[in-house]
Every structure is written in structure tokens, then in C-alpha cells.
């Protein structure tokens, strides 16, 4: 098993790959089993999304779509790393940077979509 992990780490950006896999799985699970009621444990939780049940349901669906794209994008980037022969440190830094930018993008676009679809809330 250790040999496989070493091989993967040499061939792809394993950290970025694993982050992408975790995000994709989390998004798929959230899509399949969305939080039914507003809660403080899991789901897309902001002041706007937690105003009422309609905004909550909308935010869960909308943000999940973006999270799947973000996860798949990070997985793709990890394989691009193998082609470009980027160092492990650079690859990890870029992967984490892309993840942070992706989450910022998800929050901004989801909040805008909530305001657009629920202007009186």
C-alpha cells in the first residue's frame, strides 16, 4: 500500500487529488442526503441561507453543484501536475490556493443567487 501511495505522490499531486476526492464525495452525499431542516451542524450555512426554509433548500442545492465542480476541478488539476512536472510543494500550494478561491467563489455566487431568487427575504 505504501508503494502505491509513493507512486501516486510522484505521479500526481496527491494532496490536491485527495482534497478533490473528499470535496466531490461530500458534495455528492450532500446532494443525495441534503439537510432537511435549518441546522448548525452541516450544509451551506450563512445568514442569508438560514433565513427561512426556502432559502435554506435553495442554498443547499445551488452550493452543492458548485462544490462538485470544484472537487472535480481539483482532481483534474492534480493530474495536470503530472504532465507539467511541478514540485510537490508548489503543487500543494496551488491546490490549496485553488480550493480557497473555489470556496470564495462558491460563497459569492451562492449568496448572489439567494439575493436574486429571494429579493424580499
TrEMBL record:
InterPro entries listed in its UniProt record: SdpI/YhfL (IPR025962)
Keyword Transmembrane helix applies: yes
Keywords assigned: Membrane, Transmembrane, Transmembrane helix
Protein name: SdpI family protein
Parts of the chain that traverse the membrane: 12-33, 90-108
Pfam families: SdpI
Amino acid at each position: 500500500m505504501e508503494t502505491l501511495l509513493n507512486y501516486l505522490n510522484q505521479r500526481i499531486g496527491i494532496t490536491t487529488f485527495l482534497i478533490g476526492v473528499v470535496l466531490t464525495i461530500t458534495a455528492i452525499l450532500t446532494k443525495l442526503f441534503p439537510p432537511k431542516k435549518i441546522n448548525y451542524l452541516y450544509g451551506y450555512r450563512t445568514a442569508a441561507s438560514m433565513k427561512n426554509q426556502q432559502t435554506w433548500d435553495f442554498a443547499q442545492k445551488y452550493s452543492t453543484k458548485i462544490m462538485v465542480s470544484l472537487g472535480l476541478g481539483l482532481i483534474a488539476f492534480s493530474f495536470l501536475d503530472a504532465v507539467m512536472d511541478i514540485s510537490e510543494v508548489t503543487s500543494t500550494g496551488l491546490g490549496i490556493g485553488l480550493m480557497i478561491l473555489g470556496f470564495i467563489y462558491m460563497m459569492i455566487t451562492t449568496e448572489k443567487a439567494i439575493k436574486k431568487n429571494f429579493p424580499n427575504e
